[in-house]
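Researcher: Let's continue the batch. This sequence belongs to Helix-turn-helix transcriptional regulator, and it's 136 residues. Same format as the previous ones, please.
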Amino acid sequence: METKTKNNHIGRKISRIRELRGMKQETLAEELGISQQAVSNIENSEKVEDVKLEEIAKALGVTKEGIENFSEEAVFNIIGNTVTNNDNAAFFNYMPTFNPLDKLMEAHEENKKLYERLLQAEKDKVSYLEKLLNKK
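Model: Same format as before. Here are the structure tokens for Helix-turn-helix transcriptional regulator:
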């Protein structure tokens, strides 16, 4: 039985990590001080120089080894093993342990108090300025 070696296309790994981080080619290009076209060329390259790979890794917030050893299968395995609930809809169904309306009312009361303090500060300023004008 013959085993095929996995393709170690560094450019594709860079592209995939960039996408997973929610970064556009333009943003990565700006971080690296190169053009978007240069980033596209790098992502289409099977190999990347070590120095350039270090720069790219830093810009992506990962290590050089992280890029070299990146595997989408590993990412999917981590996600699959982390979410143990078979009902994925329940995973995203957020149930707060507090009453959102109470929090909204608290925020409203705080805003009201802040407004009253700001209004009082403005009244104090006007009063002070009137006193200054009356002295002249």
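Researcher: Any comment?
Model: The radius of gyration is 28 Å.
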